[in-house]
Amino acid sequence: MATSTMTLLQDSAQRLFPNLDFDQVLAQLLLERAQKNLIKYRSAVRDFEARYEVDFPTFRQQVLAGQPAFEVEQDYFDWELAVTAVGDMEDEIKRLRRLVSVQ
User: Fold this and answer.
1) SS3 state of residue 29
2) Cβ neighbours of residue 96 under 8 Å, at least 6 residues apart?
3) Integer Cα distance of 66 and 64 in angstroms
4) What percent of the chain has pLDDT over 70?
């Protein structure tokens, strides 16, 4: 990153988060983004569960056992992505919380 860009970012971070150093600001912002993503992916999982009235493992078995319509197959991939992303975001949040609490 160019020095002037870094200086601008550090100045903004100091104004917006006066009690944190730049690394702490970055960790906090990443934590907030991961939490926002977790909410989004959990919401997607709940929407699929409501639509199909089953959990993902049950839906997966149904899809793999049959010849699903294109839309159902697409929902399978989207749902699987959301389930995987929930786990990824939970892991990321744990990692970032440890980082934020150390600083």
Assistant:
1) helix
2) 27, 30, 31, 34
3) 6
4) 97
Contact in structure between 57 and 76 (CB atoms under 8 Å): no
Q: Is 102 exposed, middle or buried (0-12, 13-18, 19+ CB in 10 A)?
A: exposed
- CA–CA separation, 58 vs 65, rounded Å? 11
Gyration radius (Cα) of the chain, Å: 20
Total of domains in the chain: 1
Q: Which domain holds residue 32?
A: 3-102
Q: Give the pair of three-digit tokens for residue 24.
A: 């702490």
Cα end-to-end distance, the chain, whole Å? 24
| Each residue's pLDDT tens digit, 12-32 | 999 999 988 899 999 999 999
Mean pLDDT score of the chain, rounded to an integer? 94
In angstroms, the CA 98 to CA 92 distance is 10
Structure confidence at residue 100 (pLDDT): 82
The single-letter DSSP state of residue 68 is: -
